[in-house]
Amino acid sequence: MPLKDRVIVVTGAAGLIGTALCAWLRQVGAMAIGLDLQGGVTSDVYGATTILRCDITSRESVVSALREVLRRLDGIDGLVNLAGLDAKPGQYTAGFCESSARIIEANLVGTMLTCEIFGGWMAMHGGGAVVNVASIYGVVSPDQRLYDDWFVKPAAYSASKAAVIGYTKWLATYWAAVGVRANVVTLGGVKGDNTPAFQQRYSAKVPLGRMAEPEEYAPLIGFLLSDDASYITGANFVADGGYTAW
Question: Rounded to the nearest 10 degrees, how much is the dihedral formed by the CA atoms of 3, 241, 35, 63?
Answer without folding.
Answer: 90
